[in-house]
Amino acid sequence: MPLRILLADDHPMFLQGVADILEREKMVIVAQAHDGREAVRLAEKHRPEVAVLDLAMPLLNGIDAIREIGKVSPDTKTILLTMHTEEQYILDALRAGVNGYLLKTRAAADLVQAIREVSRGALFLSSGMPREVLQAYLSNKEKRTDPLSAREREVLQWIAEGKTMKEIAAILGISVKTVETHRMRLMEKLDIHETAGLVRYAIRRGVIQP
Q1: Measuring CA to CA, which residue among 204, 93, 102 is closest to residue 142?
Q2: CA distance 207 to 62
Q3: CA-to-CA distance for 157 and 201, rounded, in angstroms?
Q4: Global pTM?
């Protein structure tokens, strides 16, 4: 049986290029998403063997989308596509449950191998990645955790994307006051007290692209 793949990236030309590569390898693209929330919805609907997601996507970034896919389609293996090689990004992805961490610059060369390996239960890291980060994670030496809840990370992303409290409330189906409470709590946890600081933090953590 051919592997069934979900692709998620907000750049249509990149998505099409990746789809062409995988289809030449007789893999089946069951769905393509253009933001993180759509990726989660389509993963739940199609239950693909592997989901390949960009890190920086609107509405829900790749790392948080992977967390949610783990809840709605736990058998789906996930691969994160990114330009970042910094330890923090890799650790965040590993904590979220990612099965593959692949540099976009290596996608054409390594993606097919990465999909095949993670579909068999292996953990794939692009060549050039700091292996000691993976070793520390696997040996449970790395104890740091994300201070924010899933909802606080969502609110952070939308604030960083420039959405108003009213717009965020409408997306989440909650009151503006509740959104303001989430904003206050994440500011307290991060010891950041202005919107510009939240935007800088979101960029550093790969939640949005500068």
Answers
A1: 93
A2: 8
A3: 10
A4: 0.77
